[in-house]
Amino acid sequence: MEAKKSNSDPKLVVVSGPREGQSFVLDERTDVLTLGRQEGNDLQILEAAVSRRHGEIRRRKGEDPDGSAFELVDLESSHGTFVNSVPVHRHQLAHGDFIQVGSTSLLFLSEASLGVASAQPGDSLLARSTVQKEPGEIAALVRRPDAESGIELALLLEIGTAAQELRQARALAERLLELLFERLRAEKGAVLHLAPEQDHPELWCERGRGDLHLSRTVIDEVCRRGVALLWDDVIVDPAMAGAESLRQVEVRSLLAVPMAGRRRLHGVAYFQSGTAGAFGETDLKTAAAAAGIAGLAFDTADVIDDLRAENRRLRGLAIEHDMVGESLAMTQLLSFIERVAPVDSTVLLRGESGTGKELVAHALHSSSPRADGPFVAINCATLSETLLESELFGHERGAFTGAVQRSIGKFEAADGGTLFLDEVGEIPTTVQARLLRVLQERQFQRLGGSRQIEVDVRLIAATHRDLEAAIRDGSFREDLFYRLNVIAFNVPPLRERRADIPLLARHFLRLHGERLGRPGSGLDPDTLRTLTAYDWPGNIRQLSNAIERAVVLGDGDMIRPEDLPDELLERSAGEVPLSDFQNAIAETKKQLLLGALEQTDGNAAAAARQLGLHPNSFRRLMRQLGLKDSGE
After folding, report:
1. Which of 6, 50, 544, 599 is the most buried (most CB within 10 A)?
2. Residue 571's CATH number
C-alpha cells in the first residue's frame, strides 16, 4: 500500500535496510499497515531476523486520523520490535519515533511539513529585481529539471549523490557550495544556515577570492519569502538604490537562492561578482534547483540529528539502566521516578535482590537536577566495619594500619551529586550512628581527622531486608530508619511483572548477542512461554544470566528451551509443553531422587548426601519436580 506523497498525513519512512528511501503514507484510508517477511505484507522485509507476520501499525479505535492515532504492535515476533532502541510489545507512536525491525529502520513522522511561504504581493524590491523565481517555480525545477533551458543535469545529479552520501548538514552545505562555485562565474560564494530557533541565518562556509559582502536586505527577503533572486547590475538597478554598502565595495552581480525543504527553509546560497552580467537566468535556475535538492536533504539531516539526540536521551535512561517494560508495575515505577527525581528528598528502595534497585537509583539521579554531578554507589554488605567507615567518610594518613596517605570517602566524592548506599540494612550499628549524624548535620570528619567537612549530597538507600524486623531485634537503629524512609518504594520482583519478561529477554538477547559476537538470534515461542512461566527468584539479574548462557551454548539461530538452565525447565514442567528430550531429563531426575529416598527410608538429608547434593538443593529439586517431601 505504498501511497502517494503527502505533506499533512502521517508517514512511515524507511531510513535503512533493503527498502531504504521508500515511504508509506498513513492517510484516512489506512487502518492497518502490516510488516513482515511473507508476501502480502504492506511492507515486506526479506530478512531472516524478520518474522513472517512481524508487526502492525494500527489506527487506534475511535481516534481522529492524525499522528497520535497510530500504535505499533509486535505480533510475538521471534527477534522483537524496537522503538527508540527499546523493545516493545505495544507502543503508541509519536512524531520522530525510530522503529527497528531486523536491520530495517523506519521513521514515523506525524507532523505536517512546514513548507516555505509563497511570495506575497507588495511593492518590494522583489517586484523590481532583474530576475526572480517563485517558490512554486523552484519546486518544479527540482521535480522536473528542464534540460532545454540549460540547467546542468550533471550538476543536479552530483548534488543528488552528495545528498545521499552526506548525512551531516554542514558537510552537505560545503559540497553544495563547492559544486555551484565551479559552475558559476562568481568571485565569492557562501552558504548561510538558518536554524529553527534563529531569526537570521549564520555563515557556515564560503569560497573564492576577496571579501564577502552580504546584503542583509536580500538575505532577509529570500528567507522570509522563499524566492530566488538575481541582479545582473546592482549599481544601475533602482531596486538596490538603498544597498549603499554593496555599491561602495563594487559588487555588480548578485545571486541568492533559498535552500528550502518540505519541512522548513534551511538557509541561503549566496554568490557575488564585481562584473556586471556575471550571472544569467540559466545560472539562477541551476542554482535554485541545486539548492532545492539540497534543502530536501537538509530535511533528512534534521531528522537524523533529532533521532541521534533522542536516542542519546533514551539510551541514557532506558538502555544503559535497563529500564525496559510496559507492565502496570513498570508504569508505576517510572511514574515514581518522574515524580521523585526533581526533589532532593532521601529515598529508600526496598525489594528482593536482583530487581534492579541500583538501576532505579541511577535513573533517579539521571533525571534529577543533579544529573551533571557524580553518581557514587557503595555496597555496604561487602566491607568490614573499619573499611566501610573509611569508604564512606574517608581517612587521614596514619588513621589506621595501612593508611599510608589521605583518602576521601564516598560522601566527599558524591558532593553535588547522589550517593547510593546499597544493602543499607547490613551496616554495623556503630557505623549506623555515624551515618545518622551525617544525615542530621550534613557534615562529618574523616577517620583520624579533626576538620568538619560539609557536603551537598542526595542520599538513596536500598535493602532487601525487613528493616522493621531488624529494628525489633536490635540490629538496625529506629531513628536511622526514619531518616532513610522519607520516600520509600518497593521495586517489584520479576514474577509480579511477567508481561515484561519477553521484552526483557529480547533486550538481554540483543545486548549479550552483540557483546559476544552472536547477534541475530531469536527466541522460540516455547522458550518465551518457559521464561514467562518461571518465577525468577533471582529476578532480572537471573534472567540476564540465563539469556547470556543460552547465547553462549545455543547452536542455532533461535534460542530454544533446551538452551536454558535446567531449573527453568523443571519449574515450568506441567505449565509449558516440553519436548520429549526435556521430559526425559525431568523423568530421569525424578527417578534418581525417588530411588535415593527409597534407599534411605525417606530421609531427605541422607538421600541428598548419597547423590552428592546439598539438602536444600535436594528439596528444591523435589518441589520443582512435584514430589512430596516427607520431612515437611
Report:
1. 50
2. 1.10.8.60
In a domain, 527, yes or no: yes
Q: What is the pLDDT of residue 588?
A: 82
Please answer whether residues 411 and 366 qualify as being in contact, where contact means their C-beta atoms are separated by less than 8 angstroms.
no
Residues 43, 150, single domain; the answer is no
Give the per-residue pLDDT at 63.
Answer: 53
Measured distance CA(17)–CA(104) in Å, rounded: 4
Q: pLDDT for 134-184, tens place per residue? A: 555 555 455 555 554 555 566 666 666 655 555 567 777 787 778 788 777
When pLDDT is cut at 50, 70 and 90, the band that residue 598 belongs to is confident
C-alpha cell at 568: 527453568
Are the beta carbons of 253 and 208 closer than 8 angstroms?
A: no
> Does 174 lie in the same domain as 101?
no
Q: Tell which residue, 263, 304, 251, 270, has the closest CA to residue 173.
A: 270
Do 587 and 561 share a structural domain?
A: yes
Q: Cα-flanking dihedrals φ and ψ of residue 445, to 5°?
A: -120, 145
Say if CB 287 and CB 133 are below 8 A apart. no
Residue 127 has pLDDT above 50, yes or no: no
Q: Are residues 261 and 366 in the same domain?
A: no
- Per-residue H/E/C for 507-553: HHHHHHHHHCCCCCCEECHHHHHHHHHCCCCCHHHHHHHHHHHHHHH
- Residue where one domain finishes, among candidates 450, 475, 492: 492
Count CA within 13 A, CB hemisphere, residue 226.
22
Which is nearest to 75 in space by CA: 42, 53, 106? Answer: 53
Contacts of 632 (CB under 8 A, 6+ apart): none
Task: Indicate whether 6 belongs to any domain.
Answer: no
Residues of the chain with pLDDT > 90: what percent? 20
What range does the domain containing 615 cover?
500-624
Query: Which amino acid belongs to residue 85?
Result: S
CB contact at 8 A, 506 and 79 = yes
Helix spans in 231-280 (H): 244-248
Whether residues 375 and 506 share a domain: the answer is no
Q: pTM here?
A: 0.54
CA nearest 81: which of 62, 110, 60, 108?
A: 108
For residue 592, is it within any domain? yes
Instruction: List the beta strands (DSSP E) in 41-130.
Output: 43-44, 55-59, 70-74, 81-83, 86-88, 90-92, 98-101, 104-109
Tell me, what DSSP letter sits at residue 407?
Answer: B
For the stretch 292-349, pLDDT in tens is: 777 777 777 777 666 655 554 544 444 334 578 888 888 889 889 988 998 999 999 9
pLDDT for res 309: 58
Q: What does the buried/exposed string (b/e) look like for 326-350 if buried means 16 or more CB atoms within 10 Å of the residue's CB?
A: bbebbeebbebbeebbeeeebbbbb
Please state the domain count of the chain: 4
Strand order across the 11-16 sheet: 23-25, 11-16, 104-109, 98-101, 81-83, 86-88
In whole angstroms, give the CA distance from residue 2 to residue 607: 68
Is 3 contained in some domain? no
- State the pLDDT at residue 451: 84
pLDDT of residue 162: 59
Rg of the chain over CA atoms, in angstroms?
34
Could you report the per-residue pLDDT of 379-393, keeping only the tens digit for each? 998 888 888 988 898
